[in-house]
Protein: FMN reductase
Organism: Nonomuraea endophytica
Amino acid sequence: MKLVAVSAGLTQPSSTRLLTDRLVEATVRAVGDEVNVEEVNVGEVNVEEVEVEVVELRDLATDIANNFVTGFAGRALRAAQEAVTSADGLIAVTPIFTASYSGLFKSFFDVLDPESLEAKPTLIAATGGTPRHSLALEHALRPMFAYLHAVVAPTAVYAAAEDWGNDDGLPDRVRRAATELAGLMRHRAPAREERLVPFAEQLAALTREP
């Protein structure tokens, strides 16, 4: 089982990456709880069959821009795209700018194969300076991932500046969202398999007598 997190923070360190790491750790623990695994190792995270990879979009900004201009993904961007495409679960975290996701965050998903997130369990989250921007998760992020046919966890996590160092709310939201994502990953519907029907078989079906 593979969990991939996409973090669109622009600074180093960033609150966006901090929230990403908390969601990753909570999801790994939740997967472990479902299979009664007690030992959890976070960092090079491996819990039973769970493999974790974090994609930092700030490191891919130039590659993403070049992809728009040339139509070709560089090696690092291609590796990130393949990681997201092959993941059993996705955590997507963005800072909120002007009441919506960041341009870098949106651009990364614009250069993905539009069918690569179909039926993929996904947890959406965001950071911002004020709680007023929390609704961006529902009016911007959730519709985008619904358009891409991802299966989005019911609980979205928003962390404002005042949430850090405050144990009243954010930890509970993180645990609830992580538990939902772990459940979706465990019970993920198999990808649709499309069978190519040979032309002779199609022709026979057309000419068969009713």
